[in-house]
Structures are given as C-alpha cells and as structure tokens.
Design a protein that fits this description.
It is globular and about 50 Å long. With about 270 residues, the chain is α/β, with parallel strands linked by helices. It has a single domain, classed as Rossmann fold. The longest helix has 17 residues.
C-alpha cells in the first residue's frame, strides 16, 4: 500500500520531475499512546539527521517504534514532543514530499498494473505527462509487459514492484519503506534488494527503510540506526548508528559487513557464536 498526500496540489507539486532529495532532521522526537494501564511510551527523545539522497535503515525489535517513526516523518501522526524538519521546513501535516510503501502492496484489484501506478501521480498532472511518467516507471521496475494485467495475475514480487513504482510516481523527496520486502520469498527478496538499488541510482531520493533483516540493512543502507532502549517503559531511542563502509552495491560476502552484522545482532540481544 502506498500513502501519499491528499492535499491540493501546488504548481510545484504537479511537476513530478522537479522534486529533489530532501534532508530529514528529527530533534527530540517522543511519542506515547494512552492504554488502560497508562501511557505507553513508544519513542523517547529520538535524534537523527539524514542527508539528501541517503539511504538509512532502521532496525529494532518488534514494537520498538520503527513504523511509528515513519508515520511521524510523513505527517500521518504527530509527535508529543520534538520536531521533524524536511529541507528546513517543519512537518505540520501529511507531507506531499513523502511517499510511503508498506509490506503489503495493497493494489486495487479491479485496476490494471498501469492504472495502479497512475494512482501515485500528484493531482493535476496532465494526462500526457502522466502517461509518459507511468511508462518510464514501468520500464524502470521491469513491468512494461505486465502493464495491462490485474493484480491477481502477477506474482508477489511483481506486485511489490508495482507498489514501488506507484510511490515513485510522485517523485518524492523522501521515500519511506516499511518492511517492503518482508513478505517475499528469500530469492525474490534478494532480487528486489538489487532492484531497489537500481531504482535509487536511476531516481535518486532520500530513503528511510524499516527492516528486521540485518543483512538487508547492511546491503542497502549508507547508515543503519538501531532503535531500542534498555528501559522499554521509557520508550525507544536511537541506540546505535553505524556507517556502512563501501559504495553500493556491496559485496554480500564482505568480511567487514559480517563484523557489523555481529555488532548489530548483539545490539538486538541475539546470541552470536564466533
């Protein structure tokens, strides 16, 4: 499923090719939710700066607030405290500069692949420009031949490619990916990781990726943020921030990545054996 802003378009928003990768800064972000047992603190004093065009992966135990953090960045939810800034502009409402892709593609079953991608275009986009943009994206994700199929006629990996193309249709300044490959089989997942890097090279944007897969985080991201906290009742924070060496795409067998994998697994509390 892809969520994009429903706000009326501006002249700048309608031109899907003008958006540039944006920097994101989170300062003292906290969020809690009321429960019958009192306030449940999910995030506490999260501080993180993400550079324009950077890929940052968020990892952490289930329930630590990774998905909540994505919702705060794109304005689908508001923090109780702190500030989120995209390109020096505070996030106040649903962000037209962001697109979000979740684990389930959530394609409309009665629409073709092409029409599902069309849904991501900003309001006010001309038909000719919109068709050209959709054609570009279908070619980018390797789905030109499947453009007229319905979602039930494509595989899980193909459906996920449709959802990515739909998110990119806005040419977002910030692309938020919440476990986008989590439901795929192992081989398709590896292929989709490579496709994500190809897409990022062809359509540079700032990417914040939530994943439970440490190896995936190290393969895709420039930096990996471990979200968690020793006292969960106080909420999670950025516990560790690791810069991943080397240019993308990386060698999956790199021993440096293996060492970082051990460090992150230990940070997650997973027993490791040397």
């Amino acid at each position: 499923m892809i969520l994009t802003s429903t706000a009326p378009p501006t002249a700048e928003a309608v031109d899907v090719r003008r958006t540039h990768p944006a920097g994101v800064r989170l300062s003292g972000v906290s969020r809690s939710f009321p429960t019958p047992r009192g306030q449940h603190h999910v995030l506490t004093d999260v501080n993180l700066s993400i550079g324009p065009g950077e890929i940052v992966a968020l990892i952490g135990a289930s329930g630590c607030g990774k998905s909540t953090l994505l919702r705060e960045i794109c304005g689908l939810d508001r923090p109780d405290a702190g500030e989120i800034v995209i390109d020096d502009q505070p996030v106040r409402t649903v962000e037209a500069r962001c697109a979000v892709a979740f684990q389930e593609p959530r394609l409309l079953p009665w629409r073709t692949v092409r029409d599902n991608v069309h849904l991501g275009l900003p309001r006010g986009t001309g038909r000719v420009d919109g068709d050209d943009r959709v054609d570009e994206l279908l070619e980018l994700v390797g789905l030109t031949a499947a453009a007229e199929r319905r979602p039930r006629e494509v595989s899980g990996g193909m459906a996920q490619r449709v959802s990515l193309a739909r998110a990119l249709a806005r040419n977002p300044a910030v692309l938020l990916l919440d476990e986008p490959l989590g439901a795929l089989d192992a081989l398709t997942r590896l292929k989709m990781q490579d496709l994500l890097l190809e897409i990022h090279a062809a359509e540079p944007t700032t990417v914040v990726l939530v994943t439970h897969d440490v190896e995936e985080a190290l393969y895709l991201a420039d930096r990996v943020a471990l979200i968690g906290g020793a006292h969960r009742h106080r909420g999670s924070e950025v516990q560790t921030l690791i810069t991943v060496p080397g240019d993308r795409p990386r060698d999956r067998g790199d021993t440096t990545l293996a060492a970082l994998r051990l460090e992150l697994l230990q940070g997650l509390g997973v027993p490791t054996h040397h």
